[in-house]
Amino acid sequence: MAHETDAIRERKRALGRALADHRRAAGLSQREIAHRVHYTRTAVSHAEAGRHLPTRRFWADADDAVDADGALLDHFDQVRRAIGESERVQREREQTAFRRRARRDHSGYADGMAVTGAESESTSDDEAQELAAALHSARRVGPDVVALFAAQLAQIRTLDRRLGGGLVRDEVRAKIGQIEPLLRHSVDPATRRSLATVLTEYCTLAGWQCLDNGLLGEAWQHYENAKTAARESGNAALFAHVIAEQAFVLIDIGRTVDAAEVTGHALAAARQSAPAILLAWLAAAHGEALAADERPAQSLRAFDRAGRALPAETVHAETPYVAMNDVHLTRWRGHALARCGERSAVTVLSDALQALDPSFTRAETALRVDLTHALLHAGERDSAVEQAAQARTLAGQVGSVRQRRRLARLALSG
């Protein structure tokens, strides 16, 4: 890590004080917090003093333990962004200093005097060499390299759905950082399209991870980057998927009318080019947006369309990736029914829970939150409390701020 500035040290101390304040308000000791977050008491003490900054998982668990409703986690994310910006600025300063030293060392003047014209020429030469190197690296990208990026993405997706985005979020960002410069410096049209396709998928996954972590601004930007890459790919189905998934950010900030409009547009635009499984997914996404906008009849009609479009056998299109089969469609419909206050939601969601692949931990978390909602509406409070407890545990395991916040809102309203 780069040299820590006074401003960063103060931010860490402020975060530590916030943890201590929340802990005391909850009536917990450092030892009790340590037990709940699976750290030592000394580690908690150092975190409160600002001497050490534990991982995001620590702050997610601590936030949950003291019922901070995301405040601690948001504070941690602000600190991490400040640290990242500070490190970026310091790297730029170091690179500038290195280039200046390099120009002085290779100026070619025995007396060491700098000549403005020569320095400008040296700078131009450096830039030309950097560009040539970047173009050369991009030229080496072939189908095998793109396939490797895609295979790595498939592995990351498996970890993401089982263990949550917190474990692989940095890895996704790193891959985006590797692919973007290759795309920018590739001159072969076919290679550009292939890189743009896989970059779209990485950016879309990054957007969903941020959405699940309550980072709505970052999620939106990832989806904007995904749309840019999707346009470059020339894949209309891929673009439709991105804009429909971005609509979930709109739902989470209460822009439900916009979300319904966007998902409807995505569905209409994809009808001629998208595989059947994507059409089913887009129709279901439109159904969720309509349910969020309190249009139950239209929502259920959209889910009926999704059911008709869904292939009899689950066939995964190469791009875009969507997790969609009878079980996922059922749990999605159950979510909409719960939003609309339909009593049938309990049965539909319970059936989906029984049939869900246990490797979809994040999906199970959301499903149990939906079931909690449906049970509360049905007046089955004891069962709702039981489901909420299991959902809360799963949300902690996968680090889902989004689902913890949904649970908090249900507890307040229930």
UniProtKB/TrEMBL annotation:
Q: Which residues lie within the region annotated Disordered? A: 87-123
Instruction: Give the SMART domains listed for this entry.
Output: HTH_XRE
Q: Which residues form a coiled coil?
A: none
Residue spans with biased composition (Basic and acidic residues)?
87-97
Q: A Gene Ontology molecular-function term?
A: DNA binding
Please give the name of this protein: Uncharacterized protein
